[in-house]
Amino acid sequence: MINVAKAGTDTKPPTMSVRTGASNMAFWVFFVLFLLSLGWIGVHMWMLATIFPWNFVIVSYWLAMLGTTIFMFISCFFSGEHGCNDKCSKGSCIKIGVVTFFYALAYITTFFVITFMYRPQIFPMENVDIHHIGHVSDTQVKMMWRNPTESVVSIDFRVVGDDRWLTTGEIPIDVDDDSTISVTLNNLSPDTEYQYRPFWGSESLGEIRTFRTTVSSSTPTKFSFVVSSCVYKIWQDLKGFETALDQSPDFLVHVGDFIYTDQPWFPVEEIEFYRAKYRYVYTDVHVRKFVENVPVYFMYDDHEIVNNWDKKQETPYGIAIKAWNEYCGSCNPENPKNQAWFTFDRGLTSFFVLDVRGHRSPTEQTDSSSKTMLGIVQLRALEDWLLEVKDTAVFKILISPVPWSGNIRDTDTWGRGYLNERNQIFEFIKSNNVNGVVLFSADRHYAAAFKLE
Predict the structure, then answer these.
(1) pLDDT in tens, 247-265
(2) Of 141, 234, 281, 449, which residue has the fewest beta carbons closer than 10 angstroms?
(3) Average pLDDT of the chain?
């Protein structure tokens, strides 16, 4: 509409209420980004609704983002006739478009971050094949296999250079264990290299691999090993395993947090939730190459269950440990008490790997003689082991998933929350003249050496 003034009167110059090209473009850019934002929110709402249980934090988070987006749109749309006219200058409309653009970029970032953090649940990788070597001694080797397409497996093995294959015979694969199985080869010869291959029920042969048994426990030997923990895989490759493999270690002791069930927010009390986390880590090319070629001993810590776990066998401990056993713990040395902690020997060196989660007292409990991280049964087993290897092992290596030192401000550790029991262990070592004790621990996401006095 054009307003025409009468000649000779004092009026404002004619104006036109017509949208300019630039402001029109800004508005439609805003509108498209707004629709994309709603789409991304909808995808995440659907994902969370179908995969995870609802809770107040999630609902509040997404409703806040949805409300903010709608408010911005309404503010622009109703600032005039469709947003950019005489009541909304071209400059302000462009500014709104720019702000909305960066706001939408934040949604894009959220989309990728959330997608990768929840990747094990969004893409559970149910058909992934897995193999890793576990405990190796002078006469025995344990290994884990997973093949969801087969019902039985047999392992053929032979001494390198021998033409004759031996076999375990057919072993059923139980779907109740997520198609994982632990296989033990016994009656092997010390310090001998073997070849082995899986023979699946469908008559398909697997790749031929090798392992070497250790020397007998009374024989001096040189060896190298790695202690690791805290595998927090989101989207990155776990190249630390490649670095470790380049050092040609004889074995690795992974002391907990192989998965993070409670990241970014919470675990779900369903075993498939935990299994998917393990399968996801095993899909990493560096992890696969390492565990298929180097023996790995596993111990769990809190993030296999819930951060700073101190509730013993309460829910969800049972399902969390079942999943851990299926993918990790089943290839550890046998424990005569059917517990998670274990011992093993390499030459004249003996190892005791502690379970610090399944038997501990609550962290907030006042430190005293009744507060324990190990539980009475494990503590007695540790003391018996120290006396047993006192004169037979040159080095006695104690490995704890949580730090021994007290200079870390965390009551979840020995030095801050369970000092009384730690001192009891140290006093037992001292009073019984057990020499050559070496302490290892993990959990801190960095390498360091501490002196305990």
Answers:
(1) 999 999 999 999 998 876 6
(2) 449
(3) 83
User: In this structure, is the dihedral angle defined by the CA atoms of residues 280, 241, 230 and 299, taken in order, positive or negative?
Assistant: positive
Whole-structure pTM value: 0.78
Residue 226's nearest CA partner among 288, 298, 289 is 298
Q: Respond yes or no on whether the N-terminal peptide bond of residue 14 is cis (omega within 30° of 0).
A: no
Helices (H) and strands (E) counted in the chain, each on its own, are 11, 15
Bridge-based pairing of strands 130-136 and 141-146 is antiparallel
According to DSSP, residue 140 is labeled -
Specify the residue for token string 């074995």.
251
DSSP sequence for 9-59: ---PPP------HHHHHHHHHHHHHHHHHHHHHHHHHHHHHHHS---HHHH
Q: In the block, which residue shows the tokens 């060196």?
A: 349
Task: Tell me the backbone φ, ψ of residue 265, rounded to 5 degrees.
Answer: -125, -60
Name the pLDDT band for 122 (thresholds 50, 70, 90): low
Output the pLDDT for position 324: 98
List of residues 6+ apart from 21 with CB closer than 8 A: none
Task: Quote the tokens at residue 336.
Answer: 């005569």
| Cβ atoms 94, 23 nearer than 8 A | yes
CA–CA separation, 415 vs 418, rounded Å?
A: 6
Quote the radius of gyration of the chain (alpha carbons, Å): 31
